[in-house]
Amino acid sequence: TVNVKKLVAAGKFPSNGILYVAGYNSGKGTRLKGFQISNGAELPQDLSIVSPDAVYVKGDFNTDQPKNAAVIADAVNLLSNDWNNSKVPGVLPEASDTSYNIAVYTGDTKATEDSMNGGPHNLVRFHENWRNKKCDISGSMVCGAHSRKAMGQFKVGGDYYKPPIRNWSFNEDFSQLENQPPGTPQYVSLDNVVSW
User: What pTM does this model have?
Assistant: First the structure.
């Protein structure tokens, strides 16, 4: 777990705004280990969390005087304020209303003839019973490719998750280059104007 509040208090918040987290032999599929980011409601400056693994954002994130923030990871999982690590087979923890001001750049799972991948509204992944609870996201979401590690097939209902009331909007500030989170991937398009 990366506790943002403790990271700040210890003077270890990254000065360049990029926090890279990775695990050795982190696994794949349902055996994938990831990193939980907690106590991130208040950020001292812009922040991008980058990982080749799964990242779990626990609770309100970047909601107090929001900064430009992103999570760039193989899989981005959103956990509510009530998440307590109690999920086990057959038990689906109850979620609570939770807000995130965040840009997400992540992968999805491959759709097959027998299984869909959940579509864009399930690009971020859930693990709780969110029924009648709000998940507010102000930011942006980009699916860069299929996940390389978090490859379990999409499932909903049962003890997987129940969807939230999705209140998602694009953060217009991200339209300006200077407002994008640190390390935001940039793409350049070249046009052939003249050729010989």
Answer: 0.89
